[in-house]
Specification:
The protein has helices at residues 9-12, 26-29, 139-142, 165-171, 231-239, 282-310, and strands at residues 42-43, 49-50, 58-60, 70-74, 79-82, 88-90, 96-105, 116-117, 124-132, 149-159, 182-186, 202-207, 218-223, 227-230, 270-271. It contains six helices and 15 strands. Helices cover 18% and strands 24% of the residues. The N and C termini lie far apart (72 Å). By secondary structure, the chain is α+β, with helices and mostly antiparallel strands.
């Protein structure tokens, strides 16, 4: 999760580079980045556990975030939109209030989602960041707390033709924030339209920020259903922005702001829906098949013993 609480500005430009300050070296400067509950994950559905008690996500205020403009920012490692505090999430262990949303994307050769499902990546990923307003006064106070943050993750896939008008509210303003630290006002719009239509199907796990300082304070909700944007909209995201300030040479394109998948390390990933076509995970299917085979073998042996006695 990129965002306001990440690396200092002097290091933002190098967060995702392959060099000595790139993500493989984050733990040297930010120890939490090397801990055992990091994000993102490549979610393996064979080990996901179905939890029918997980309630659907219920956004409050998302359709009407107020009349004041929102602020769109190029912060050097992502494009971020501020969100007013009257946007809340229900359906989680506490009440969470929205702070900002931002994107992760690749380039024309590389996929850009941070989370994956069974190895599958998507062209981009949206994160909507919230803090636990029931327990903490603000984002700064909540960021380091184990139950401090909740992030909604939405995969973005490409529609060959049709634009997504909700995403146009953001992407049409990228020309105004081409360079790092530039800001632009965006007229308020229904943030709910950025999310999938179906909010009842998701993966849930505890993890971390996906940029330094990588605090392990995030309750992740990764929606099963992607949102769709057009190829032209994706290209705008991939090719418009720079990670450097205006006038600084050379101008570095802002692309591939993606952290690699992290180890699961004994964590449990839950799903609010039955995983797999049969309603069972792959692991459960294997167990069922084994049980059936063992049962069949038992019946066969019992029949064989009985037949032998009759002789």
């Amino acid at each position: 999760m990129g965002g306001g609480h990440s690396a200092s500005r002097s290091h933002r430009l190098f967060l995702f580079s392959p060099g000595p300050t790139g993500q493989r070296h984050w733990p040297e400067r930010y120890p939490d980045c090397g801990r055992q509950a990091q994000s993102p994950l490549d979610i393996q559905t064979a080990s996901v556990q179905y939890d029918p008690s997980l309630p659907p996500i219920e956004p409050e205020g998302y359709r009407d975030p107020g009349s004041g403009p929102l602020t769109l920012t190029n912060n050097g490692h992502t494009v971020q939109l501020s969100l007013p505090g009257n946007l809340h999430l229900h359906g989680l262990p506490s009440l969470y209030s929205a702070v900002q949303l931002h994107f992760h994307w690749g380039n024309s050769q590389a996929v850009g989602s941070e989370h994956r499902v069974d190895g599958q990546s998507f062209p981009a990923e949206l994160h909507v960041v919230h803090f636990n307003s029931e327990k903490y006064a603000n984002l700064t106070e909540a960021t380091e707390q184990p139950d401090g943050l909740a992030v909604l993750a939405v995969f973005l896939e490409v529609d060959p033709v049709e634009e997504n008008p909700a995403y146009s509210h953001i992407l049409d303003h990228l020309d105004s924030i081409l360079y790092a630290e530039q800001e632009a006002p965006v007229a308020a719009f229904s943030v709910r339209e950025l999310l999938p239509a179906h909010l009842g199907h998701f993966y849930r796990y505890r993890g971390s920020l996906t940029t330094p300082p990588c605090y392990q304070s995030v309750l992740w909700t990764v929606f099963r259903q992607p949102a769709r944007i057009s190829a032209a909209q994706l290209e705008k995201l991939q090719k418009s922005l720079y990670s450097t300030k205006d006038g600084k040479a050379p101008s570095n394109p802002l692309v591939s702001n993606v952290r690699l998948p992290q180890s699961l390390n004994q964590r449990l990933v839950l799903a609010s829906f039955p995983v797999g076509a049969s309603g069972y995970s792959a692991g459960e299917v294997v167990a069922i098949i084994a049980a059936v085979l063992l049962g069949s073998l038992g019946v066969f042996l019992a029949g064989w013993v009985l037949a032998k006695r009759r002789r």
